Structures are given as structure tokens and as C-alpha cells.
Amino acid sequence: MANLTASATRSSDQVIKSEMPLRIALLVLPAPLDLSGNVEQTSELISVLLPELHSSKLLQTSELVSIKVDDFETNLTATIDAIEQGKIVQIYTATSSLLMMHALKAAQNRVHPHAQLAAMQISSLTQSASTVLADSCMNNALSQAKRQPDSVSKRIDLPELDSTQQFNAVCELIKDLASRTHHRAPDSISAKQAASHYWFTEHHQARVMAINLTNTVESTATNTTSCISFIVSQGTGFIAAKSIIDSKRLQFIVSANSEAELLGQLSKIESKLITEADPLLTLMRDNLIAYEKQHSDKAVIDKYAITLQASSVEAMLQELKAMADALPKIISEQGQYRTPAGSYFTANALGTVEQNGLAFVYPGVGTVYSDMFSQLHRYFPSLYAKLEREGDLKSMFQADAIYHLDTKVTPALPLGDLAIAGVGSSYLLTQLLVNAFNVTPRFALGYSMGEASMWASLGVWSDPHALIEKTKTDPLFTSAISGKLTAVRQAWQLGNTSPDIVWNSFVVRSDAKTIEALLPEFPRAYLAIVQGDTCVIAGCEIQCRELLTRMKKRGIAANRVTAMHTAPAMEEHSNVEQFYIQPLLESLPTDIKFISAASGEGTVSNATDSLDSQVIARSIADTFCNTLDFTALIHSAQKQGATLFVELGADRQNCTLIDKITKQDRQCGSKSSDFPCCTVPTNAKGGDDITTLLKALGQLISHRVPLSVTPLIDGLHREIALAHLATSVKTVESELQSNLTLQGEV
Fold first, then answer.
1. How far is C-alpha 234 from the chain's CA centre?
2. What does pTM read for this prediction?
3. pLDDT-above-90 percentage for the chain
């Protein structure tokens, strides 16, 4: 093991003159590592935090060099010199650390770097403006990296920082690159907007940063400005996923077959929290491991399960008491109990293997909102990487509009763009629930265009991404049933010289029969959607308002132009059908019943049927062009056995509608009120993405839906390793100060 300081003597001029691209792999270490100390302990922690690096054994070689930052420019030249000699270098400050090696060495050892340094240039001039020098130095770096200026995704200028600040800032930027995170300028957003979101790029375009560090040294004779410019591109590795559960987002699960056993389990957790017998993170991890093992080993799972969630130990103790107090009544009444924090218990589980009433519900157009899912990528980086490999993720989410700094842009999106973003959000959440947590539905249904989301998300269409560009450009969405409304003009027999149609839709609290009885008086107003105790009317805005006046009702205007679910849309039925004829995957799901609003009893396919692209397209077209009776769709699903409705998409509008339908059924005493029903949103506008998801998982667990909690366990493993590493760093900090600053030679 060799150690270096700023005593390295290599001239920076040699770096300036370098014309060949650098190929240096960069890995952000979770903390400065004492590579000369407890190697076994360090290796154990790295095995959790950077498993590829651990398996490569690179940290156990004699090629390691440590450089403590004191003069960043000199440290960098020493680092590059060492790497050229085949060394692996840890360059670090008290809070940040980078492992640097030749990219070929990383590839040979199957290490996926977080980033790659392609160029570094150092310049200095007297009497020069820092921006002018930075431009010149950056251009030299781009030339060295063999890159054009337009290939740079971001330029970051960091003026007047000392060496430690410079290095720490560069490490943070590399973390952003490795986590694919874009940070917004604080002065460009409101308090309600997300501070960061996923870093989207054009399809197949790598993320590239140009970083310029400038400093001005003032003297009585002259001012000298120095600049270091880097060109850094994304690597194939990712920063480890953030843990869904941590010290501020607590969760415990207890399961048993009786009330007495549940109360006993609650008491044990309370006792451990009070006595602090084990560290909190370890206690939660062990609880989840025991739950996972118990339910993977058992042929028959426990009858009851309680999920407990809170933001602190003190709050968790309150949740435990509240749950224990409520438990006897909930079991005796076969009811459910939930707290605002997310703790949940049901005495009537609806998702067991025997009952298998789990249904995925897909929302329609218009549920997407500004900054949705802004933090989700930090917790599921591999999922985003998979989606990025599959297709154009930026277009799939309509990212330019969804993450626009002006929050008015998203709701003003054209119909086609709203449809794309809606399908994209549903696809993302479906992949998350199915692939990360191994949740498999028995039923699937969609609200309006949610049917398209259903086919795209559940492994039926072979290339759903092909519909993105088609949806943006096809006249069906741009002009026929939206925009100029050519289908409506044709149905109304309007000539080319007729005035533009003023179209709108209104949500009104009314039953369908009342509206249908009055429609003959208003031939250009239509009953578009029936949804519980409300309906949606659409059409000529004047006639819709006249209809509302006649009904003595107030309507909430949607101010969106779409003729879906109205008679004029039937003009486009064949075009809709043709649009949605999509090739299917060779291997199709056989255990999911797909339910359509258009077919009689609703089932398009079940476990014994074979899916056909023509049948699917016709089903979508029928739903698209006719009045949508969402109430009837839910009743159809319930008759077929659906009891637990999980909404897969932005916000929770379908859950709200289903709850209203269920409430109305109970009040009316209809036969549908005999069917048990529970809704589970996986996202909610205005809520924290991860907290809402965790609450959804908690509900599914209590309803005894078979699923894996491995992602929660893995996250806690990393949190515990980070906590141990932080303790280890503090313990040896004084040693690092004395030992690693000794001068040495490479």
C-alpha cells in the first residue's frame, strides 16, 4: 500500500498537452476507506454496498494508493500518473472518496464504474475573465475527449472553491450522474415543486458532464485565473438504491392466526423498542427476514397480518398502542383499521391464494400531474435502467412537459401526450409491483384508455413503445376526436366554412337515467361516462350548459377537448381498431382475466382462452367509441371475483370512484353491496411517492397477497452497512489524519 500527498512533482503542463482521451473508471465510495486498516471489516461492508467491487478483490491488491486531497490540481496529476502505472487510487477528503482506475482494469475485473473520466485540462492566465478561461479550457477538454460541444448534457461551472470543496463538489456531481438525478436551481422552483427528478436524455444518448473549476488568485502585481476542466460520461454502474425503510420511515409486520397471538407479537415489538435491545435498523431488518422466511416456508400462511408504519420510534410506540386497542373490535366485526401514518390491519383478507381477488385497475387520460414520480428512480435504479434499455423513457413519460418548471404545462398537454404519459406511468408502476415485489393480479381492467395501459403493461403487446410516436402524430388523436374535432364535424355534417366547435365536458352529480331522458332535447350533448354517483356529459359547450341548467345542476368543467365516449367517436371506430392492432408476445399471461368495459360480462380472456390482437383492438375501439359505464365495469369485475382493486397509475382517481360506487351500492341496498371490496392506491398526487407505495404494500400484506419483501430487506442491509461504515470512519479518523498524510512514493 502506497500513500501520497501534494508532494507529487509531475508538472501540470504534461496534462495540458495531452491530446489522447483518458479512459479512467470512477467509483464513488460510500465513505473514505482505511485501506491499510481493518481490511476484513471494510471488505464486509463493501460486499453490501458495492458487491461487484467486493467480488473483484481489487481492494485486496498491492496496487492500491491513497491520496488525501490538499491541493486538488496537484493531487489529480499525481492520481493520473499512478493510474498510468497500473495503480488503483483512492482519492479522498474527510467526507468524500473516489476510487479511480484504468477503464480496462475495471472491465477485466467486471467492475461497472459509476462514471468515466474522458478528459482533464488545466489552464491558467493572467488578467483573464474566469468565464473566458473556462470556455477555452473546456474546449480543450472536449477536443481531448474527442467530443463535440453538443454532446454535453450539462455544463457545470464551480468558481472560487478551495481544494476540499472542489473535490467534494465533483464527487456529488458524479453521484448525480450515477443515480441519474437532475437537480433544479433552488431559485427556479416553488416550495411545492420537486427539488430534483430523473435525469432524462434523448433515446440512446449518454449523459455527459463538462465540469469547470475556476479560481482567481489576487496579488499586488496581477491577477491569475486558473481552471481545471473535466469531461465525465456516465458509467454502466449505478449508485446503490436508497432504502425504502430507514430511521425516518419505519415498518414492522406481525402475523398470526389469532387475536391473542397478534397482541403478543405487538407487545414483543413494543418491548424491544422501549428497551432498545437491538439497533432500530437491525430490528426492522430481522423482523422482515423472519416474515419472509416464515411465509416462504409455509404452505399455508397465517390468517392475519398487521403492518405498522411510523416516522419515529416514539410515533411507532403510539401506532402499536392504537393497533392493540383497536384489534378486538376489528376482529369481532371483521372490519379493517388504518391510521394516517399508514399502519393497516384487516380481519377479512381479500388477497389470499384461495380467494385470489386481486385486480389491477388502470386509470384513463388526465391523471398525470407535474413532477410525478420525481424521487422514485433513487429507490429503483435498476427498474429505470431496464425501462431506458427497452425504449425512449423521456418520450414515455413526456418528461419535458411533466417536469417543466411551469406547472401549468402538464394539465395543458394535448390529448395524445396525456395518453402517452398515462400509459407510461401505469407501465412503470406495473413493472415495479410485478418485478420488484412479485405481485401477480388475477384480474385486470381499465378506465377508458386505461384499457390500452392494461395491455401495454401486463406482458401482452410485444412493443408498446411503438405506440408513442404513433399517438403523437396520428390524426385520430391530433384532429379527429381532439383538436379540430374532424370526427365531430363529420357527425354533425358541418362544412369546412363552419365555425370551430366549442367543446367541453362536465362532471355532474346525477344518475344516468335523468340525463338520458333529457338528451333528445340537446342533440349535441352526450352522456360520456357513468361513474358512481356522478356522470360526465360532453359535447357542444352551449348545449351542455343548457342541459345542466335544465337539470338544475352545477357541473365541473374539465376544459379538455376530447370526443371519446360520445356518438361522434363512432365515426372513428375502424381507425381506432386499426390503430390498436399490435403484435403480441409469444409467451402470454395465462393466469390473468382481462376485463373490458365493452364486452358483455367483461371478460376478454381468461386462463383458458388465447388472446388475439384483433379481439383486443376491437375491444379497445368499442370502449373508446361508446359511453363508458365504469359502475357496470366494476360490478362485472366483482361478479367474476375481483375484491381487492389496486390502482396502477398516476394519482388515485379510480380508487376514489370505486369507493364511491361501493358506498352507493350499500346505500341503495343493491346486490353488488354483497361483494366485499377494498381499494389500494399506489400513488397519490400531493403525497410522497415512497410513503404511498409503502402504505400500498402494507395493505397488500395485510390482505395476505403473496409478495416478496426482499427489496425492503436489501435496502435495510445497505442502511445498516452505511451506519457501520460511518462509525468505522469516525473510529479511525484520527488514525487517517496521521497515517494517510505521510509522504510516500508511487
1. 20
2. 0.92
3. 76
